């Protein structure tokens, strides 16, 4: 199967990155396989240990039955059979051996003090359903100190009077002897053996612990790998952004060099053209075609001068005058400047001031210019009958968040990555420098601007501005007009 590998070409060479879904799914599949194998190994180990204990118990029961059968043939006393039972209980791991009647009363026990007491109640004996074949279960054993521990118990009917099928030469008089059909040797009596499972439990706990440790290491490695993948992608993204920023700066520098070289040469002829246009306008009859053409010439000269001014403003360093201001007042003032234009187009303006916001350091004039540029773009996008909403929010650790949302036609997805590029515009009369200047002013405020847009639903610009500025602050001075670069 072919795996698609994404590659990032940066200044450090080729950085291959597997898709996130491939890495995560591989880790999940590996964890499932390991867990399944571990469960199977645990179950297989427990089955082997259980079979071993069952075989030991079966041998122990048959050995005691054989000894009891021999004792009956030699007419042993009951105390001799009790001694035999106690001796057999000395086997390693044996907790107890007991013979009970059908009601659960102990007839013989490896602990002689238990003889005559109840091993289990009649109801429990009935639920155990003791049969002629061995049955087993995991239960709890209470020792003399009243401590509880796990036990592996095997039980079946006690058959000391039956002939061993592997010993066909045995004296058949031992098969049925009325002298031994006492209550202690009744056909419905049951024999119980219990083995200590401490070793089995410890081994299983160790296996589980080792499996959990292995899974923890695997998950830790997966987490570290995912973090490494995350930071690699962050590095890829930041490197791409850095490269884009470098390209943008280089482009602005090239434009700046071009603008500085030709601005003066362009503006001098433009001044002459405008002068001649005004002259012909004054000499032409009022309302004549000549006069209208002269006005168009003067208007176009003004537009070219404005383009040159915006270009110089974009490429030259911004002269900012930072002051402590109330951001609510800045926004209310900027909205007041465009309110009449918005009302003429039936556009509703929404803004709820936040009186709890602290004072913020910025250049009020240049920041007002940013807001006006975004407002006017929003009004043009809406056209008629819409909403322009401005929101304020204090984001801990990031500063002030200003949202400017309109209900206009939105920005096409293909155009969205280029809206801050110089000279990129979708307007017939636009210069393509407005949003580039907005981004430059925001960056000079040590902030950032982002945009999200849905076609036919509207556009949202987000401005993130720090509350304080690392540069020199002129807080007690009134706002001063920022010098405009109108001359070359």
Strand order of the largest sheet: 4-3-7-6-5
Shape: rod-shaped
CATH T-level topology of the largest domain:
Beta-Lactamase
CATH superfamily label of the largest domain: PAS domain
Structural class determined from secondary elements: alpha+beta
Count structural domains.
3
Q: What number is the mean pLDDT?
A: 77
Query: How big a fraction of the residues is strand?
Result: 15-25%
**Uncertain regions spanning at least 5 consecutive residues:** 1-17, 166-185, 472-488
| Helix count from the secondary structure assignment | 8
Query: What is the distance, rounded to the nearest whole angstrom, between the alpha carbons of the first and last residues?
Result: 64 Å
CATH class identity of the largest domain: Alpha Beta
Q: Please tell me how large the radius of gyration is.
A: 47 Å
CATH architecture of the largest domain: 2-Layer Sandwich
N-to-C SSE string, H for helix and E for strand: EEHHEEHEEEHHEHEEHEEHEE
Helix content: 40-55%
Write the layout of secondary structure elements.
Blueprint: E1 6-10, E2 13-17, H1 20-73, H2 78-88, E3 94-100, E4 106-109, H3 122-128, E5 135-142, E6 148-157, E7 190-196, H4 198-283, H5 289-315, E8 323-325, H6 327-344, E9 347-351, E10 360-362, H7 364-382, E11 386-395, E12 399-406, H8 434-444, E13 448-454, E14 458-465
Helix pairs in contact: 1-2, 1-4, 4-5, 6-7, 7-8
